[in-house]
Amino acid sequence: MEATNLCSAVLSDALDALGSLNQCLSSDIRPLDDSLVLCGRARTGIYMETPYKIAENENPYELEMTLLDSLKPGEIIALACGNSEQIVPWGGILTMAAKGRGGAGCLTDGKIRDANFIREANLPVFHKGFAPMDSGPRARIKEIDVPVRIGGVLINPGDLVFGDIDGVLVIPRQIEDAVLKNAHDKTSLEKVAIKELQKGAHLKDVWERHKVL
Predict the structure, then answer these.
(1) Three-state SS sequence of 82-121
(2) Are strands 148-150 and 153-155 parallel, antiparallel or unpaired?
(3) Per DSSP, what are the bridge partners of residue 23?
(4) CA angle at residue 81 from 26 to 44, to 5 degrees?
(5) Quick one: which of 100, 128, 97, 102 has its CA closest to 115?
(6) pLDDT at residue 44 above 90?
(7) Residue 139: exposed, middle, or buried by beta-carbon count in 10 A (0-12, 13-18, 19+)?
(8) For residue range 172-206, what is the model confidence (pLDDT) as tens digits?
(9) What is the rounded distance in angstroms from the CA atom of residue 56 to the CA atom of residue 75?
């Protein structure tokens, strides 16, 4: 069962119904393009600030390259930066690398740059702001494919990440099937409820019949 035809609101409701009340990321992580939907499995990386210069023959992007070059179609790059004001992990070149490998987007609590280029590339990117700096002399990825925390939510490699204009949430693999079934069922009920409301039905009566709101 897929999530691509759903929305973050109904998926959040489905998570709530299963007792997972803390899967929505903080609201300060926003889409670069409000019209695009982020949906895919997480490939994770943790950044750290590095207050030293790049040494001769050092490649400060080594793990970054490893992560992008191993990306599989439908996967999302999820980069934890600890809300740093110095770390800018995503830009135009990485966007094209991700698109070229069939990646589904990027999620980060760091800054992004090359915003207009990314918009034109039509890749969903959710971020915490803009800055023109290069990450090279300021930060490194210290680990990839490990659990990370972004926007207050734990993301394990392979978890389903979904984001739209309303926000971003994470669906843990162990409850994914139940969440998606619940969300699809609720979507079907909402369509019925909306039609009844459009015909003038009372909200209380619709609620009592369908238990959706």
Answers:
(1) CCCCCCCCECHHHHHHHHHCCCCEEEECCCECCHHHHHHH
(2) antiparallel
(3) none
(4) 90
(5) 128
(6) yes
(7) buried
(8) 999 999 999 999 999 998 888 899 989 999 999 88
(9) 33
pLDDT in tens, 124-145: 999 999 999 998 889 999 999 9
The count of residues in the chain is 213
SS3 assignment, position 191: helix
User: What pLDDT does residue 1 have?
Assistant: 63
With H, G, I as helix, E, B as strand and everything else as coil, classify residue 182: helix
Contact predicate 61/134, CB 8 Å: no
User: Residue 204 corresponds to which tokens in the numbers above?
Assistant: 């209380």
Q: Which parts of the chain fold into alpha helices (H)?
A: 8-17, 62-69, 92-100, 115-121, 176-198, 203-210
Tokens 């990314």 sit at which residue? Answer: 118
Paired tokens of 138:
């300021």
Query: What gap in Å lies between CA 37 and CA 210, rounded to an integer?
Result: 28
Q: What is the CA radius of gyration of the chain?
A: 19
Among the residues of 7-156, which ranges form H helices?
Answer: 8-17, 62-69, 92-100, 115-121
Distance CA 130, CA 88 (A): 8
Burial pattern 162-179, b for ≥16 Cβ within 10 A else e, equals: bbbeebbbbbbeebbeeb
Please give the model's pTM, rounded to 2 decimal places: 0.93
- Rounded to an integer, what distance in angstroms lies between the CA atom of residue 137 and that of residue 116? 23
Half-sphere exposure of 98 (CA within 13 A, CB side): 27
SS3 label, residue 43: strand
